[in-house]
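input
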Amino acid sequence: MTTEKRLTLLELLNLANEAYPDGFLAEYYDAKTGKRLPGGGDSLARFIVAELSETFDPDAPRQTQLREARTALSHAIDDLQMVIAILS
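output
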């Protein structure tokens, strides 16, 4: 039986940063520790780092960590879509 390595918070944030335009998530976390930083300028990047950091479980299996990250961001998308709908 193969046990898949768990992610660290830093690995999860780096993975998300690869997909974010201009890698701007990295302004909001320390590249060595994953600790959140104040950053500045891109509130969506700050939000994503906050959501991923606040919902991260270092003891969960890798696939659970990834699923929880997707779920947290999907809930945020749902909330944004409700706001957009009311503004339409």
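quick obs: Helices lie at 9-19, 43-55, 62-87.
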